[in-house]
Design goal:
The protein is an alpha/beta fold. It has two domains: 228 residues, Rossmann fold (3-Layer(aba) Sandwich); 188 residues, Rossmann fold (3-Layer(aba) Sandwich). Helix content is 40%, strand content 20%. The protein is built from 18 helices and 21 strands. It has a seven-stranded parallel β-sheet, sandwiched between helices. Helix 1 packs across helix 2. The longest helix has 22 residues.
Length: 448
């Protein structure tokens, strides 16, 4: 196996390496597929063995991405001195990994609290892979890292989706990075300075919107430690085509859908469905749009097969070319698997065989596809059977195929949409959130 060397890094990657080395606290916002892992490993390698500026590094990452970091070191000759230990798994496995006293220890974010509370934290550099997973300042993982943050000399936050649900996400992320220097030490103060109440009921505020000029001011404050880049700016990316396959409900199906929407209750042939609140209503409406729903007894009631019919048309028109299908509800998975010969991507073997072209139709859930999976060798068409409200999961799932290394000249993202249903609203919301996030990324985009 011919190893890559440092000269194989792209210009923007070398720039990013230098930025991390020059900034003890840095936020690196790079599109999926831009090589955040090799950039960071190269910078860490320099800091460990050239400048001797750090001595022990902790990488916090999603559970399924841990081995991606270790595997990356085996592809590059200049990383041969790095000693990595993956502290993921059972308690015994984690303790054994920590006992190796490696240069870099990799741990999944769910175990950060365990690491800190058990007195095992002695790292002078922390890398947070997917900084956006620390946007909740009340989460255990956030509080745990904040306890030890004063003793961390260097910290790097990596993500391609810094503000997937709006600018409010940024406070916790930067509170962790710079301990409140740029956006303040308190979330209430951040809200007061940059936002005003949007949707509310009496004294209860459900959402906030940025004040006039707030976005530019937030971007200005974080720009000195932040760089962002898009793959399309620096890499030859395949053409991305996004399309919609509309299905139409019958008059009777439309009436039942509207009744549930208006009355929060509906009786279908097999059972009663009631909804407790508006939040639960959106979930139930999404289920109906997809073609099945859980009744009050948790039984699956099939409502229509229009999306399944559409998926059949898409599979037939693919003429044997592999398709990756994203589903959201468990009953989506069951109904698709019952009708078609499919295989769910869950294990490393599934990933290998998909990339080898051995799986004609693969199913994947966005929550498990979100980060770190390289699926671009297996196909170039992704079908969204059911959508997610999460922009982060939506973008990351799309990026499993639309990324560097995709051999097809075109990647197709096809959305099966039930016309006149909540599907249209979800797709519109994803588009609007993307505008907010793109504004952030453009504002701090590095000129390389």
């Amino acid at each position: 196996m011919n190893l890559l060397n440092r000269d194989n890094l792209h210009g923007y990657q070398k720039f990013s390496v230098g930025f991390i080395e020059e900034h003890p606290c840095s936020a690196i916002f790079l599109d999926c597929g831009c090589g955040k892992t090799i950039i960071t490993l190269t910078a860490v390698n320099d800091l460990l063995f050239d400048s001797f500026d750090v001595h022990k590094v902790l990488v916090v990452c999603p559970l399924r991405v841990g081995m991606v970091w270790k595997n990356e070191t085996q592809k590059w000759s200049h990383l041969k001195l790095l000693n990595l230990s993956v502290a993921i798994g059972t308690l015994a496995e984690r303790k054994a990994a920590l006992a190796r006293n490696a240069d870099i220890t990799i741990i999944n974010r769910e175990n950060v609290d365990w690491l800190v509370e058990n007195g095992g934290f002695d790292y002078d550099m922390v890398v947070i892979d997917e900084l956006s997973s620390f946007k909740n300042h009340t989460a255990k993982r956030f509080k745990a890292l904040m306890k030890v943050r004063p003793w961390v000399r260097r910290i790097v936050g990596l993500t391609g989706t810094p503000s997937s649900n709006g600018l409010m996400d940024l406070w916790a992320e930067f509170r962790l990075l710079d301990m409140g220097e740029r956006l303040g030490k308190f979330i209430t103060r951040y809200r007061e300075c940059y936002f005003m109440p949007d949707k509310r009921s009496g004294q209860q505020v459900f959402s906030y919107r940025p004040r006039a000029g707030a976005e530019d001011e937030i971007y200005r404050r974080i720009s000195d430690i932040t760089i962002s880049m898009k793959c399309t700016d620096h890499l030859k990316m395949p053409e991305l085509i996004s399309s919609q396959y509309e299905v139409i409900l019958s008059d009777d199906e439309r009436k039942q859908y509207e009744r549930l929407k208006c009355e929060l209750a509906v009786t279908l042939s097999a059972g009663e469905i009631t909804v407790a609140n508006a939040a639960a209503l959106t979930n139930k409406l999404s289920q109906l749009a997809n073609g099945a729903i859980y009744d009050d007894a948790k039984h699956i009631i099939e409502f229509h097969s229009r999306k399944l019919d559409a998926l059949e048309d898409i599979i037939e028109s693919a003429n044997g070319n592999p398709l990756l299908v994203a589903y959201w509800f468990k009953h989506d998975l069951e109904r698709i698997a019952k009708r078609f010969e499919v295989r769910e991507i869950k294990t490393s073997k599934d990933i290998t065989e998909w990339n080898a072209g051995k799986i004609p139709v693969a199913l994947i859930h966005p929550a498990s596809a979100g980060h770190g999976l390289n699926l671009q060798s297996g196909g170039s068409t992704l079908v969204w059977f059911g959508l997610t409200w999460s922009l982060e999961l939506y973008q990351q799932t799309n990026a499993r195929l639309w990324r560097q290394g995709q051999t097809s000249g075109t990647v197709v993202i096809q959305h099966i949409i039930a016309k006149g249903t909540i599907d249209e609203r979800v797709l519109r919301a994803l588009s609007q959130k993307e505008l907010t996030q793109n504004a952030l990324i453009d504002a701090v985009k590095a000129e390389v």
